[in-house]
Specification:
Elements: E1 2-6, H1 12-22, H2 29-35, E2 41-48, E3 51-61, E4 64-72, H3 81-92, E5 98-104, H4 108-116, E6 120-129, E7 134-142
Parallel strand pairs: 4-5
Antiparallel strand pairs: 1-2, 2-3, 3-4, 5-7, 6-7
The structure holds coenzyme A (COA).
Amino acid sequence: MIEITPMNEDNYKAVAAIEAACFSQPWSEKTFFEELSNPNAHTYLALDSGEAAGFLSVWEICGEVSINNIAVLGKHRRKGIARALLENMFNDLKESESVTLEVRRSNAAAIALYETFGFEKVGERKNFYSQPAEDAVLMTRKL
Ligand SMILES: CC(C)(COP(=O)(O)OP(=O)(O)OC[C@H]1O[C@@H](n2cnc3c(N)ncnc32)[C@H](O)[C@@H]1OP(=O)(O)O)[C@@H](O)C(=O)NCCC(=O)NCCS
């Protein structure tokens, strides 16, 4: 069973551990802790049968949502967890006007995920990423 819960003081380390397992330049535990007191930040943890499996981090500023990161641990992938995280966010932030994100050009899984939610490619950012260096694709969905 998949459950989505807000990140809090009890589970932020689990969120940081998922981030560390999935990205080459992860945000630290301290950064996630600081997000707890950022009024613009919304971070959601996904539990798969009670086990921390994935998370979604966004900022919402003046009606514009920007996705910082979404990740699901390898053994929990292709079970609809990322989809559940995004559906939960769209429901939670339904007053917003648009959602934007950057994604590595080679990240076919994430691009496919975003396209199923109606995100469209609206631009590119050259050499946006390092380790390894790569361009970002900019995607937006109007709400
Ligand atoms: C991208 C990621 C978050 C997807 O998580 P997930 O929980 O496995 O995704 P879901 O099971 O909810 O998939 C929803 C849909 O997205 C698409 N999708 C997800 N993974 C895919 C893959 N590997 N290949 C193609 N399409 C994929 C499919 O359309 C899928 O629907 P389907 O399973 O019915 O075909 C996960 O692969 C991940 O954590 N990757 C590493 C971190 C990352 O790259 N994050 C994105 C940063 S921008």
